[in-house]
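hey
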C-alpha cells in the first residue's frame, strides 16, 4: 500500500482553552502556562485529531496575527439560493416557507434526480409544430427512472409555480386545506360565534365564509401542528389577561405571574401566590381534529399490514427515501416530489476580534471572493520528500534501525525576508519512538519578490542558479552527504534542509534498552497507524513588516514613520508524516 508524505499544521485555538482559576492563584497558573509551553505536541493524542489541518484549510487573521481554523471562526450567512435555478431567496421567505425552493425545482422521490415539467397532451405534429404550445394538465417527470407524478395522482394546471400548486394537492388528487385557510376559517368561527343565528327548529345555521371541516378528519403532521399551536395560543390568551403592551401569560406586566413577583417584594410572596393562582383560568385539552387532536385507530395499522401482505416488500419506501420526506411514510405510493434544498454563501469572522477573514460575492452566479485571507499567503509552506530517490515500490517504507534522510523545504509567500527556527524532540512520541535530527535548525528564507526584479538586481539573472548549483556542489564534495549547520539547497524564496530519521523497530519483545517507557507500560499488539512515523516540529518565524497606520494618521505621518518597520513573529506546531516502517 502506497504512502504519500504529508504536512499538517496545528491551530493554537485548542491551547487557548485553559481551566479557570480563583483569585490569588496566579503562581500556579503561571507554572501551568510554562508547563504547556515546554510540553511537546503529541500528534497521536485524541485531541490532536481536531487541531491538525492542511495549510490550504486554514485562514489568517491580520489583526490577531494568528492562524484560524474552521473551529475558531464564526460563520455568517450572506445569501440563500437554490442550486437548481440559482434564484436568490430572501431570508424572510426562508423563515416563513422553510429552506426549500418555492418555485418549480423538485427532485424525484425515488432516485433524487431532477424533475422536469411536461404536458400530458400528445406533442403536435405537422407544419408549425415547433411553434405550437401545449396545454395542461402538466406532470413532473424523471428522466432517469421514468417516474411521474401521475403515478400518485398529482397533476397541475399551470407549468410554473409548482410548489404552490403541490401544497394544495394530496396524493390521489384530493385538495389540501392549507394552514392559512385553516387559520382564516378559525378566525371566522371565533368572530361569528356570538352572532350566529338559529332557524325555527333551534339549529345553528352555517354562516357564509365558514368552511365545513370534518372534526374527525385524518390530518397530516403539518396541519395537526398548526391546529394544536393555534388552540393552545387561544387557551393561553383566554386564561391570562393581556397587558398594556399586548403580551399575555408570563411575559405580560398584567399577568398573574408578573403581579405575584411584584407583590412578593413587599409581602413575602405567600399571599400573592395564592391570589395569583386563584385568578388563573382553567385550560382544557384539545377535543377534535380542528383543535389538533389526532387519535390513532387500530384499523389503520391493520390496513397497513394487509397492504404490505398484498403488495409485497417492493412497495415499501427505503430508509433514504423516508429521510428526504417531510413526514413519515411507509409505502412508495405515499412519497411526494422533494423540493430542492437551499444552499448558502457564508462569510467567516475571527472569533476573537470579529475581523472578516473570508467574504464571498453576494451574486449567486459568481464564485469570486471580496475578502479571502488564506494562511497560504501569510505562512511559509512546508513540504517533505526523501533525499535519495528510492527504488520503485519501496518509496514509502522505512527500514527499522536504518538512518534515512529527508529534504524539508520551506517556501516564503511574504514580500519580506523571514528567519525560521525549527525544533523537534529527539524521539517521536508514542510506544515506538524514532530518533529525529535536524541538521540546520536556523536559517533565513528570501522574500517572494519578482523573478525579473531579482535578476536585474543581481545582474544577469544567473545569480540564483549559480547559488543553487554552488550549494549542491558543496554537498557533493562529501559524497552527497549533508553537513550539520548548513542548508542543502536555496532558491529565490525557498530553502531546503536535511532531516535525518532513525526508524524504530516494531518488535514488541526486544532488548530492554531499545524499548521506550510507553512500550514498557503497554506491551499490547501493534495498533492502527502505529507504523507511521509522524514528527512533531515546532516552527518559529520572525520578519519585519511595515507599520500599519490609520487613515487619519496617514495624512500627518512623516516619511520616516512610513518607512518604519515592526518586528513580527509567529510560532506554531506542525506534524510531518514521512513514511511507514517495515514490520520485522
Amino acid at each position: 500500500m502506497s504512502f504519500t508524505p504529508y504536512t499538517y499544521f496545528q491551530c493554537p485555538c485548542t491551547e487557548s482553552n485553559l481551566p479557570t482559576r480563583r483569585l490569588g492563584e496566579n503562581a500556579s497558573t503561571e507554572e501551568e502556562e510554562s508547563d504547556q509551553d515546554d510540553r511537546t505536541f503529541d500528534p497521536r493524542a485524541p485531541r490532536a485529531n481536531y487541531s491538525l489541518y492542511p495549510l490550504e484549510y486554514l485562514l489568517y487573521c491580520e489583526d490577531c496575527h494568528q492562524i484560524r481554523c474552521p473551529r475558531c471562526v464564526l460563520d455568517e450567512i450572506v445569501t440563500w439560493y437554490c442550486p437548481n435555478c440559482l434564484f436568490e431567496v430572501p431570508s424572510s421567505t426562508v423563515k416563513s416557507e422553510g429552506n426549500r425552493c418555492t418555485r418549480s425545482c423538485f427532485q424525484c422521490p425515488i432516485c433524487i434526480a431532477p424533475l422536469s415539467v411536461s404536458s400530458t397532451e400528445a406533442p403536435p405534429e405537422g407544419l408549425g409544430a415547433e411553434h405550437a404550445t401545449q396545454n395542461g394538465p402538466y406532470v413532473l417527470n424523471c428522466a432517469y427512472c421514468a417516474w411521474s407524478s401521475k403515478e400518485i395522482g398529482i397533476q397541475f394546471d399551470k407549468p410554473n409555480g409548482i410548489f404552490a400548486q403541490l401544497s394544495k394537492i394530496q396524493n390521489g388528487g384530493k385538495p389540501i386545506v392549507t394552514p392559512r385557510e385553516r387559520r382564516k376559517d378559525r378566525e371566522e368561527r371565533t368572530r361569528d360565534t356570538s352572532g350566529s343565528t338559529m332557524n325555527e327548529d333551534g339549529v345553528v345555521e352555517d354562516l357564509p365564509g365558514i368552511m365545513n371541516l370534518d372534526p374527525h378528519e385524518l390530518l397530516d403532521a403539518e396541519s395537526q401542528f398548526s391546529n394544536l399551536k393555534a388552540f393552545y395560543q387561544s387557551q393561553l390568551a383566554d386564561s391570562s389577561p393581556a397587558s398594556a403592551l399586548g403580551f399575555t401569560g408570563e411575559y405580560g406586566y398584567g399577568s398573574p405571574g408578573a403581579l405575584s413577583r411584584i407583590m412578593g417584594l413587599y409581602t413575602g410572596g405567600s399571599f400573592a401566590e395564592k391570589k395569583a393562582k386563584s385568578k388563573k383560568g382553567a385550560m382544557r385539552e384539545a377535543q377534535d381534529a380542528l383543535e389538533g387532536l389526532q387519535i390513532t385507530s387500530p384499523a389503520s395499522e391493520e390496513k397497513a399490514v394487509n397492504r404490505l401482505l398484498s403488495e409485497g416488500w417492493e412497495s415499501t419506501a427505503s430508509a433514504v427515501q423516508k429521510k428526504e420526506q417531510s413526514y413519515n411514510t411507509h409505502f412508495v405510493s405515499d412519497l411526494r416530489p422533494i423540493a430542492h434544498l437551499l444552499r448558502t454563501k457564508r462569510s467567516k469572522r475571527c472569533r476573537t476580534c470579529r475581523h472578516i477573514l473570508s467574504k464571498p460575492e453576494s451574486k449567486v452566479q459568481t464564485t469570486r471572493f471580496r475578502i479571502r485571507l488564506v494562511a497560504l499567503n501569510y505562512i511559509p509552506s512546508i513540504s517533505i520528500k526523501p533525499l535519495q530517490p528510492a527504488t520503485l515500490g519501496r518509496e514509502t517504507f522505512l527500514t527499522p534501525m536504518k538512518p534515512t534522510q529527508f529534504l524539508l523545504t520551506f517556501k516564503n509567500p511574504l514580500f519580506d525576508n523571514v528567519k525560521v527556527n525549527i525544533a523537534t524532540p529527539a524521539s517521536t512520541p508514542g510506544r515506538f519512538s524514532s530518533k529525529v535530527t535536524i541538521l540546520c535548525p536556523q536559517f533565513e528564507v528570501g522574500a517572494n519578490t519578482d523573478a525579473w526584479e531579482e535578476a536585474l538586481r543581481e545582474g544577469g539573472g544567473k545569480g540564483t542558479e549559480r547559488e543553487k548549483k554552488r550549494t549542491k556542489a558543496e554537498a557533493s564534495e562529501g559524497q552527497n552527504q549533508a553537513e550539520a549547520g548548513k542548508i542543502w539547497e536555496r532558491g529565490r524564496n525557498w530553502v531546503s534542509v536535511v532531516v535525518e530519521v532513525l526508524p524504530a523497530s516494531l518488535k514488541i519483545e526486544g532488548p530492554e534498552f531499545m524499548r521506550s517507557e510507553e512500550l514498557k507500560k503497554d506491551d499490547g499488539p501493534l495498533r492502527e497507524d502505529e507504523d507511521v512515523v509522524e514528527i512533531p516540529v515546532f516552527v518559529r518565524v520572525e520578519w519585519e513588516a511595515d507599520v500599519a497606520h490609520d487613515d487619519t494618521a496617514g495624512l500627518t505621518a512623516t516619511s520616516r514613520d512610513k518607512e518604519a518597520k515592526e518586528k513580527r513573529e509567529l510560532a506554531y506546531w506542525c506534524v510531518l508524516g514521512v513514511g511507514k516502517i517495515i514490520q520485522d
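DSSP finds 14 helices and 23 strands in the chain. The two ends are 17 Å apart (CA to CA).
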